[in-house]
């Protein structure tokens, strides 16, 4: 895929310092003026001191005078989506306000479709929460607006049942959308592993 952020994240991933996990990650952020800032993961023998690629990119951007980022791309060598960890999501939430807490944990179908929910940046002015379906090649298949909730609502991560239906909800609101294929056969295809939230890996 030739998106500039993905190209930049792919290139910087090769510079990652990951002698322990061998899991190289690259991240690229787009600042408000279009500048692209990159970062890669840096591991430490003391695990807690390891830096994720997203945080490296954010800190680099801040040190160069940027304070707000529009979008991020994260690239690994695995075909499965690799969402940011909690610490990276916190920084993205603080320095990328249009994300309004970034996106949900993704759910992946056996057809390779990734579903992710992005909450609206400005619910107070009528912007909608949106469920996206992304194909195996990274291209958007479709987007489904889910209406406007209150500013304090927290949306659930998407769930896929064995018939391929995708479920999302928040408080009194819930949706069922026809997807493509049941859950992926991976050990953890969605948040809490399955539609029953069992939390047990296969």
TrEMBL record:
Pfam annotation, one family: dCMP_cyt_deam_1
Entries under Gene3D superfamilies matching the protein: Cytidine Deaminase, domain 2
Domain of life, source organism: Bacteria
Molecular function (Gene Ontology), one example: cytidine deaminase activity
Annotated EC: 3.5.4.5
The entry's keywords: Hydrolase, Metal-binding, Zinc
UniProt keyword RNA-binding present: no
Family matches, as SUPFAM superfamilies: Cytidine deaminase-like (SSF53927)
Record has Zinc as a keyword: yes
GO CC, alphabetical: cytosol
GO terms for biological process, alphabetical: nucleobase-containing small molecule metabolic process; pyrimidine-containing compound metabolic process
Domain CMP/dCMP-type deaminase as annotated: residue spans: 1-125
Assigned protein family: Belongs to the cytidine and deoxycytidylate deaminase family.
Protein name, entry field: Cytidine deaminase
Gene source species: candidate division WOR-3 bacterium
